[in-house]
Amino acid sequence: MLTVAKLAKRCGVSRTTILHYEKEGVLLPALRTSNGYRWYGDREVERLQQIKAYRSYGLPLRTISSLLSHSELHAELLKRHFYELEGEITRLRRQQEGIVALLNDPNLIGGKGVTKKRWVEIMTAAGFSEEDMTKWHQTFETLEPEEHQKFLVSLGIGAEEIAKIRAL
User: Fold this and answer.
1) Considering its fold, how many domains does the chain have in total?
2) Cβ of 9: how many Cβ atoms within 10 Å?
3) Is 41 in the same domain as 102?
4) What DSSP letter does each residue of 29-58 carry, written as one string?
């Protein structure tokens, strides 16, 4: 039998993660003593390994819980997640295509006169939805906040609107 700390070390997760999984009901200790110690056996180790595998596929805990408790739903839930990932990949590819289009247009790279309106037209033509553009700005802001600021200024956007965009 393993304590929370030993289970965490053996499986390469944090103690907090194990406690969170317990709180969510996906990983319960085999035994809980009167003094509050949690003990985990081989079955719990195996279950934690399954949870880790499913998490590596990007599955949320709610879906993992369903997978572990209703094996008959296994294929259906995995297919649903597969198609969700496929949609996300499609959106990301459209974003890549938009960036490639920008990189291939010499008037846009370091050029003058690209306005917010023109930028939105380019992104829309590349297949970006409003949601995609919002995510793009959020990612840009997270990774390169100073460059994002410079970019927004280069589009001729006013300070008030820039503040709103950066706060998305």
Assistant:
1) 2
2) 13
3) no
4) -SEE-TT--EEB-HHHHHHHHHHHHHHHTT
Q: Rounded to whole angstroms, what are the CA distances from 153 to 7, 38, 115, 150, 167?
A: 51, 56, 10, 5, 15
- What number of other Cβ atoms are within 10 A of residue 128's Cβ? 20
- Is position 79 within any domain? no
Do the domain assignments include residue 78?
A: no
pLDDT tens digits, one per residue of 106-127:
565 555 567 888 888 888 888 8
Query: pLDDT tens digit string along 132-165?
Result: 899 989 988 888 888 888 888 888 899 999 999 9
Q: Looking at the domain assignment, is residue 61 inside a domain?
A: yes
State how far Cα 103 lies from the chain centre.
26
Q: Is residue 82 part of a domain?
A: no
Domain containing residue 103: 89-166
